[in-house]
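Build the 3D complex.
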Amino acid sequence: MEDGPLILLIALVAVIAITIGGIWYGRRQSNNLSGWLVDSRRMGPFLVWFLLGTEIYTAFTFQGLAAYAYANGSAAFYNVALNDLAYALGFFLLPAFWLLGKRYGHITQSDFVASRYQSPGLGIFVALTTALIMIGYIDLNIEGLGAVVTVISGGAVTGIWPDILGFLVLGLAVMFGGIRGNAWQSAIKDILMFVAIITLFFIVPTHFFHGFGPMFQAFHQKLQSRMVLPGINPKMGILWLITTVILTSMGQWMWPQWFGISYTARGPRSLKLQAVFMPLYQLVKWMVIVIGFAAVLILGYHKTEGNNVVMMLAGHVLPPWMLAIFTVAAVFSAIIPAGPIIMTSAGLLSRNVYQKLWPKTKDTTTYRLTRGLVLPLTFLALILAEAAPALIVVVLLIAYDFIAQLFPAIVIGGLFWKRATKEGALAGILGGWLVAAWMLVTQHDPWHGINAGFIALLVNLVLFFGVSLLTKPVNRLFLREFFKTVHPESR
Amino acid sequence: MRRMIVIWLLAVLAIAFLYLGASTLWFDTPAPLILGMPPLVFWFLLVPLATPLILGALYLWDKRANPQQAYFTDPPS
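Done.
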């Protein structure tokens, strides 16, 4: 790409400017752990919208989803369905988490688990394990950043350097800006992403097909097998779509960072309002999938690495100034969403592991430790990205297989079923993780067309209910008060 | 509260059916084109537009009838 160095320079300047802006905006709110992690529960609907949006619209959306459509055809639509179904679930779940968080002073998901099951040990276990799973999610964004820089530089900047740049920007922005700074950066990132994707969506058909009608006609004539399920991958049929969407939509709110984001809201009503309007965001994903289909006809199949197709098309059709905006948007789609994930990981390890194991630790020390963990955690993700590079969607789907196993313990036991016990929760989670790991390692995903994580979830449910019924629940009076918060008497 | 939960679950099932049931029953076919688009491409454009209508109706009902509202109301902005 001829203008690659100039575009990268512009992108670098923009990244530095927006990083400093985020640090400046977040500095007043970030002087304690509650302010740094959940903005002291006072964020308005505007910033909460962008915080929620930024976690959905990551490097995965910008690059991974188009790559998936390019490689697998219509199976990519699973991702449109998963988020909308998750928003419908979130309509009740997120306000319920908020209500309990407000009443019992939860800041993290682990606080919620420890409080519901009256078990600091279970809280520590969930904090430690989810913090590790989340490193996979950070890795996904680092890989996305690497793909952007590699394509824009025309292959001149490759290897570890783009990832190191992402590590530094991400680590510094999170450490100094906190969640409020990240929300400000998210607003800019989402607007840039909208502009970039919508522009590409309208230019690609015009430039390569002479309009939308001829483009869809070309899909119909030349990509028929990709326009249906299972498409070109016989493993991804209707059963795979159904089980994957159910698993991932149940898993979406189990990512610990969503608890933090829901706690930032001023009240439950603003969270319900987000659930109503967030599905409109999915139209952007639909556009990205269409761009992925078009890439098969434009670039040829198996002619390029999947993660690069969007940037390659942008490089073909956009003028340099527009490509610069596109690049900044793509870079931010990789960097900004990782912010809440790193913050949550650090918060879980310091507040829910270190402070619980050493209870005399002062809150100020925990806050300093949380910020101090940001760079080491980001560095771990950098190492993972270098050691095991993969198609972005594959990383995401594997992570979902594991995180969704928290659903029975957190949603069924946490919000609906008083009889659930900590032993049942632990047995279900461990059983689910073992089955998921075994199926992935032995390459049984999908198994007879069923998502491996879904099968693990069924095993998890059997263990969760069975062991809970055989063990003793926590104090009945506590449970009555806890559940009354979510299920008050009707007026 | 039970009524609110039942109605919420019905909304979840309706959206799940649109995405998973209707798409596989009636739109998982290469032809005929709908508004010039392959059927699955058309359907996955339409449902994200329909979902806010379902959740919007649920929101309006919830605002009027949800007993949680009395338990912890939003502070004035």
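Chain A has a mean pLDDT of 83.
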